[in-house]
Design brief:
Blueprint (H helix, E strand, L loop, with lengths): L1 H8 L3 H15 L9 H13 L3 H13 L5 H10 L7 H13 L3 H13 L6 H13 L3 H13 L6 H13 L3 H13 L6 H13 L3 H13 L6 H13 L3 H13 L6 H13 L3 H13 L6 H14 L2 H13 L6 H13 L3 H13 L6 H13 L3 H13 L6 H14 L2 H13 L6 H14 L2 H13 L6 H13 L3 H13 L6 H13 L3 H13 L6 H13 L3 H13 L6 H13 L3 H13 L6 H13 L3 H13 L9
Helix pairs in contact: 3-4, 3-5, 4-6, 5-7, 6-7, 6-8, 7-8, 8-9, 8-10, 10-11, 10-12, 12-13, 12-14, 13-14, 14-15, 14-16, 15-16, 16-17, 16-18, 17-18, 18-19, 18-20, 20-21, 20-22, 21-22, 22-23, 22-24, 24-25, 24-26, 25-26, 26-27, 26-28, 28-29, 28-30, 29-30, 30-31, 30-32, 32-33, 32-34, 33-34, ...
Length: 650
Amino acid sequence: MAVARRLHRLPTATAAAKRSAGTLASSLGGIGARPSTAALAAAATAAAGAGRASECQSLLLRMSRRRGASRREIVSSLLASCPTTPQPQVFDLLIRTYTQSRKPREAFEAFRLLLDHRVPVPASASNALLAALSRAEWPHLAAEAYRLVLSSDSEVNAYTLNIMVHNYCKTLEFDKVDAVISEMEKRCVFPDVVTHNVMVDARFRAGDVDAAMAVVDSMANKGLKPGIVTYNSVLKGLCKHRRLDKAKEVFRAMDQCGVAADVWSFNILIGGFCRVGEVEEAVKFYKEMQQRGVTPDMVSFSCLIGLFSRRGKMDRAAEYLSKMRGSGLVPDGVIYTMVIGGFCRAGSMSEALRIRDEMVGCGCLPDVVTYNTLLSGLCKQRKLLDAEELLNEMKERGVTPDLCTFTTLIHGYCREGNIEKALQLFDTLLHQRLRPDVVTYNSLIDGMCRKGDLTKANELWDDMHALEIFPNHVTYSILIDSHCEKGQVEDAFRFLDEMVDKGIVPNIMTYNSIIKGYCRSGNVRKGQQFLQKMRQDNILPDLITFNTLIYGYVKEEKMDEAFNVFNIMEKEMVQPDVVTYNMLINGFSEHGNVQEAGWIFKKMGERGIEPDRYTYMSMINGHVAAGNSKEAFQLHDEMIHRGFAPDDKF
């Protein structure tokens, strides 16, 4: 009975919990009441003192979210809640609460207030603040916080050093990096492997390969051993700057230093060799990777498949796609799109569409990039009906066409000469609130110029400027060439002058268009004089330049001048082609100068240029006109022997 009475006097667990809750509610202003900042501060300080960090941080979070509560009020309340000795734990949690809530500026303000009250801030709190400010891309505020840490004699450690080194390395301010290291060394905090890794990466980003390698070499003098992260940073930097021989040398040195290459090491090298198109080296590292027991991943296969797809070696791309599946990896949309793009560039649209079907069958739905790749391939092959069907499929699958989609189709229809359809697509583009770019306008202007409608082309030119879409060298080249095609050299020069005034440098195609314009307007001599301006502008004449001038002189029946251009061409080491020889042979033959035509024909053979059907017919017609039937029949037999069909008139 005594035991029963004593048990009866003990409070139940539920009653104790209710009283505890009631006490807490009372201290925070009562159940349902909005606690004051002071009450929350007192509770947070008590929780921190009892080691209940999670509860303390929850209360601090409530304080920071209170409407109208300033950082000064919060800090003052926390200081008032521990009048004797401030508790570092609660202020550590306060700074970290702000940084974890992605409020680095508020954290900085609280930090500064604490230092003003001479409250010692733990290194964990100041490091959290510095890291948050650096992540937020506020390097100057991070630098100010760092100066406050140093001036207040707050605790610092290697993490502090690495944060600030990283902060300045992001902006490539190496003098400030050196200053931080020097200051920290005075406080007996020395750079570690992480510090050097950050500096190596920054030096490579700055393009200073030698300085990056010097940082690596300095590690040994400081008793530090480069690890896999260091070596991978070096490999990445060397490959980025195309120092591939040095990258191979570093890779071999890893084994000697006892650092085993990982999948990322191999991927860096495979990717580096793929970017410069060195197929054999890329494949060699892929094979070595397997021999060492390092399993290739998505990146490994992506590099190789992309390389072979870009090079048009689609059998090899398909081979690595198959190996990828065999290793248990599922190709993603990016890899499938690379393969599709390769087949499109190779003109194998049936294979490209087969890969698209395989992609869908694997549950990987094509995105807008995949569809744009297919549309580009179809448009290049002038399969515009198929492209239209694919556009409809794209919409049915819920893939929204983008600017590239419409521009690709507009370009395709313009090349086909269907300007009306191109303009319809342009109107749809605008209706869908897509903003056309210079490529879109270039396609339309080129289409109008091909059609011979320069008035409409000029209207599009005006529309571009009204939308503040500025022409590029392609736009100017299209209009210059179109005016030159019609012999409108003055209009072409107006565009050329404007082009130069805007700082757009003309290229060889632009200058060739001007020369063509002179030739079309019957002023070949001025076209030849224009060569001097080309050379002054450091543009060297090419095969098309000389062929255009020769054609112009032949057309004007000035064979001596045409032959003179031919001699200049050879002196300037520009190799004539079959078109060059044909123009001269035909010109001399038509003017009855069969001897000169024969000399050109002989020279053509000596230079290893194979004559074509047009060459033979020009020579034959020249001999027939001169009454040289024997020579004409000899050339006729030679022509047939070479597999060329003679003219029926012969």
